[in-house]
Amino acid sequence: MPLLKSYMEVVDAGARSLKMIYQSKMAPKYDFLQEENMEFLLSLLNNESENVSGLGASIISHSCKTSLEQKLLFDAGVLKRLTSLLGGSLIQRDASLESIATIFKNNPEVVSQFVGPDTGRTLSCIIELVKDRFARTRLLASLCLIVIRNASPCYLQDVGIKTKLINNLLELLDDPGQVGDESSFAFSSLIAEKEDMQKLAFEVNGVDKLYNHLQKGSLHPRRFEGILLALADMCSKLECCRSRCLSLQVLNLVVDALAHDSSDVRSAACMCLRSVSRSIKNLSAGSFMNETIVIPLVRLLDDTSTAVQVAALGAISNIVVDFTTRRSTFIRLGGVKLLVQLSKSMDSTIRLNALWALRNLIFLAEDKSKEEIFMELTASLLASLICDPEPSVQEQALALVRNLVDGRINSVEYIFAEDGIILDAVGRQLRIASKAEIEIQGMYVLGNVATGKESHKEAVMDQLLLRAENKAQSCIIKFLQSNDSRLRTAAVWAVLNLTCSSSPGSSGRLVKLHDAGIVSHVKNMVNDPCLDVKLRVKTALEQFNSFDDSLV
Amino acid sequence: MPVRVAESSAPSQVSGAHSEESSPPICSLLTVGQAFSGTQNVSNLQKEEAWRVNVRIQGCDLEHGYLCGTMEALNVPMADTPVVTFWEGEIVDAKNYTFYTGKWEATPEDDIRHWTKFPSFAPLLSRVEADGGKSLDLSNYPYIFMRWKEQYFVNVGTDCGLTIAGFYYVCFSCSDGSINGFYYDPNSSPFQKLELKCANEGRSGFSFSSYELQ
């Protein structure tokens, strides 16, 4: 049958060419929604030729993008066929692993249907391939398991498999090619946000192993980025990982990476620095607030890439949490000027992160630093940021003002600058806001101002007793009734500070609060389910009592 | 707060830690930025003496039962300046930490001997003796029990002739933010009492600042 043989050769060659075409991102998408297309795909997968079935798998990896497509492929029984390909040639195995990962990726619904007699077989096939002798197969099998686990944490609970995956990916870093470059990204997706996985990775010396690769120098940018991100994920939650990084002096290499040509590497270096600087123990020791770190970071605030700017702001937000007097270093190096500039950016993510950094910088700041920061910020800019269209920006702006008026008593005066435009903005925002986070920060601003002089307390009263249009009652009553105990706490603290028994005007203010219906609401909270609120209310009632029994 | 090295006592033994679901109340007076001031009684047989002490909370991670901050001792006889130390705290939440220290040369007997010095511990004693307190739900208890362990000197060298080898058994009152503690170091005078109150820092009322790490 010479004719048939050559026909098969043509099919094979055609499949090989198409497979190569489908490896390009530019190739058109295959439409799974058409029934005949799905039938054709299944026929490809069922074909005995490794190039033809490999083509079927390549089409899935290339074209399956939506959760509907994932479900259609799953329901069509593609998985069964792909599982059998796992036992095939190298080409079939790798193509099948990629396709399985594509069908499960970020789709808990499909993963949850992945139960039944075939589940165990498929999983054990993949687990077996994690030990394969080919590096690329090991990486693809690991990625497949990670996708399944991330979509549904009930799979792969076994510590042995978890440790195996971690070790495998760390070992794959030794591969000099693309597999080595990609293994750190797979490692990140395995441990990101998962403290138990990070702990396991720490126990197998993950930090040291990543550091060893980083140390080799002149890395391909993709590999450099991946290792920095893997370190960032390892240090995101666990202090032991951060300590290990610091004792290995990993930061020297990370700081160098801040000036790398590739913006992805610069961004990853910032993220690594951000994770390590979550260590309060080291922030307290002032370990990060030095010129070696601050100068290159501040330089990145001017970066041409927005992603780098945002990442740099993230690292700066942590580093400026300073318990010594070193924040002057940051101010001296021009950091505040740039942060204030960025707080006026058209990009709301930049505004948010710039304000976040300023809020942390001003936390427990000494008078001189506060003054310098406020001079740069100005009352009018702060007032406009409190009323920013983006709610998360409003929240950070209010948190910043809360810190600004804390500390020494004269700090309260800042809120009265330029005819009190900041205070007015705070009051206005509290009357119209609908997000608890904004209301909490706003109430703490008023509560902090209410710890000042008589005139300060009276100004807070004015804001609280002003009613929004069409509203029958003061906004604080809404806060006292909130479902969020943090907001109730903040509201009761403001009442407590306004009726402090040591202040001469407190009894007058108590009468006004009573007439506005606020006192009776506080009284009703005596059995609040939140202990903190309950204890504050108890103190408030004792305070009320000391003035006038008739009000309580 | 650092103390001078004095007479010794008690050997050491280690006990295991237990774990159980339960967390302490989130108290607004025990949050970052809050300051406390008071004294530590360092009297011994020879002499009555108390050092003024300031404390500031710098970090708090209730999920991990973690708290940290600085402690400043003001009139330390051997030091020219106030001595500042950084401490880390373990919150007894029956989840991350129990009443049994299990380290720092503290035996279960030392633990009970110190905890029972706090009147607010009395209602918990029998349960703690029965099962280490692992079945206690402390989430609605108006006191928070902690251990504070100084980790390093912030502003002086380790050659200052002072030691931070011991640790504090601490009881925090959620009602008024007052803190009582006992310093424990087998090599120092026993039961040195720490007494702190919320510091209003010249304000009429309570002011709260905050930071958030990214």
TrEMBL record, chain A:
Its main location: cytoplasm. It comes from the Eukaryota. GO terms for cellular component: cytoplasm; GID complex; nucleus. The keyword Nucleus applies. Keywords: Cytoplasm, Nucleus, Repeat. InterPro entries: ARM-like, ARM-type_fold, Armadillo, ARMC8/Vid28. One of its GO terms (biological process) is proteasome-mediated ubiquitin-dependent protein catabolic process. It is found in: Cytoplasm; Nucleus. PANTHER family: ARMADILLO REPEAT-CONTAINING PROTEIN 8. This is Uncharacterized protein.
Automatic annotation (TrEMBL), chain B:
It holds the Pfam family Vac_ImportDeg. GO terms for cellular component: GID complex; vacuole. InterPro entries: GID4/10-like. One of its GO terms (biological process) is protein catabolic process in the vacuole. Residues 1-24 are annotated as: Disordered. Transmembrane segments: none annotated. Belongs to the GID4/VID24 family. This is Glucose-induced degradation protein 4 homolog. It comes from Citrus unshiu (Satsuma mandarin).
